[in-house]
Design brief:
Blueprint lengths: L11 E3 L8 H7 L9 H18 L5 E5 L3 H12 L5 E6 L2 H13 L2 E6 L8 H10 L5 E5 L1 E2 L4 E2 L2 H10 L3 E5 L11 H4 L3 E3 L13 E5 L1 H8 L12 H8 L13 H17 L1 H21 L15 E5 L6 H12 L1 E5 L8 E5 L7 H16 L1
Parallel strand pairs: 1-12, 3-4, 3-5, 5-8, 8-9
Antiparallel strand pairs: 2-10, 6-7, 9-10, 11-13, 12-13
Helix pairs in contact: 1-10, 2-10, 3-4, 5-6, 11-13, 12-13
This protein binds pyridoxal-5'-phosphate.
The site of pyridoxal-5'-phosphate has 13 residues, from helix 3.
């Protein structure tokens, strides 16, 4: 048997992630691998940390790139902060809120679930009521940008509520980081995780996370040992900490971190506010074009994510056939519906490098063609 090298086609990725990775980031990825404890590499890691602090808008000392995908970032936040028996208020308005509940219950903690309709923002009043009903709740967890439905929640208002009840916040920013306004310090977020393959337009497999000093204190004052050795951030803190000596914890994904470093420089050069504005502008052009095609959004206008456009599949269109047609004829990938929206929705991503007019124009004309077929 012989095997050939794998040569994927050049797709245009307009789904829920991964998003298109720029040539500049891909080229960083292919630079020579060096040791992960090489002083030059450690310098670069320090820059990654500083650039992540910029992206998150935080001064949190504990801001790192976890060597695993966004789901591991989620798990890291929960297993480090939450202990068995703790009460956690979890907002569920899509697939990722559901996963948060799973994380809480596996720890042996109690999840107080606040349900909001799929395709809508988390309902603030319901969260306020849950906080009133459960004064002993220690954490409030929610998804800022629900990629499964395309809805954004008011993270700032939710954090304010949590603070009024002396609850720490755990926030999923996998799809929001770099794509919409996100201000960790100003809003008072305590633990946050993201992913590299959405609006950062980097390769998948890394999860930027950041803990506030208060969150770090909670982690350091736990009564019980953190159940996961790999995700135990008290061990990783030494690996990523300050200028001093690094101790070996695990081997960092060296080349992927080159890529993240490059992607973060690009975000820094563009400027966060400009990146947010670009996502918004491209979304508006796309929304206008979709309207002309008679396609309806799932999420009401003021709760829509610019980077993830969830739309109803038009009557008479075959979900899989259309998506396959786009892939075959245009090398264009859009996302299928997830969870409650499986078979009912498409998800068009305008993430990071992919949020540009060429992509919007291509997507609209390809979709029009596919629907005519
Ligand atoms: C993609 C995503 C995740 C999971 O990230 P992975 O890198 O796929 O593990 C978590 N939360 C949200 C909101 C996401 O969009």
């Amino acid at each position: 048997m012989t095997f050939k090298s794998f040569n994927p086609p050049q797709r245009i990725l307009m789904g829920p992630g991964p998003s298109d990775v720029s040539a500049r980031v891909l080229s960083a990825l292919s630079r020579p691998t060096i040791g992960h404890l090489d002083p030059l590499f450690i310098n670069m890691m320090d820059e990654v940390k500083t650039l992540l602090q910029y992206a998150f808008q935080t001064k949190n000392e504990f801001t790192i790139a976890l060597s695993a995908p966004g789901s591991a970032g989620m798990e890291a936040c929960f297993v480090n902060l939450v202990e068995a028996g703790d009460k956690v208020i979890v907002c569920r308005n899509g697939v990722f809120g559901e996963r948060m509940i799973e994380n809480v219950t596996r720890i042996g903690a109690e999840a107080i679930v606040v349900d909001s309709p799929w395709g809508r923002a988390v309902e603030i009043d319901k969260v306020a009521a849950a906080l009133n009903d459960h004064p002993d709740a220690k954490f409030l967890a929610f998804v800022h940008a629900e990629t499964s439905t395309g809805a954004v929640s008011d993270a700032q208002a939710l954090c304010k509520l949590a603070q009024e009840h002396e609850c720490l916040t755990i926030v999923d920013a996998v799809t929001s980081l770099g794509g919409i306004e996100l201000k960790v310090d100003e809003w008072g977020i305590d633990a946050i995780y993201s992913g590299t393959q959405k609006c950062m337009s980097c390769v998948p497999g890394i999860s930027p996370i950041s803990f506030s000093p208060k969150a770090v204190e909670v982690v350091q004052n736990r009564k019980t040992k953190i159940q996961s050795w790999f995700l135990d951030q008290t061990l990783v803190m030494g690996y990523w900490s300050g200028k001093g000596k690094r101790s070996y914890h695990h081997t960092a994904p060296v080349n992927s971190l080159y890529a993240l470093h490059e992607a973060l420089i690009m975000l820094h050069d563009e400027g966060l506010e400009n990146s947010w504005a670009r996502h918004r502008e491209q979304h508006e052009v796309l929304a206008k074009g979709l309207k002309e095609l008679g396609i309806e959004f799932i999420v009401p206008k003021e709760e829509r994510l610019p980077q993830l456009n969830a739309i109803y599949i038009p009557d008479g269109a075959d979900d899989a056939k259309v998506r396959n047609y786009l892939l075959e004829h245009y090398n264009l990938e859009i996302g299928a519906g997830l969870g409650a929206f499986a078979g009912k929705a498409w998800r068009i991503g305008l993430m990071g490098h992919g949020a540009k007019s060429e992509n919007v124009a291509l997507c609209l004309s390809a979709l029009k063609d596919a629907l005519n077929q």
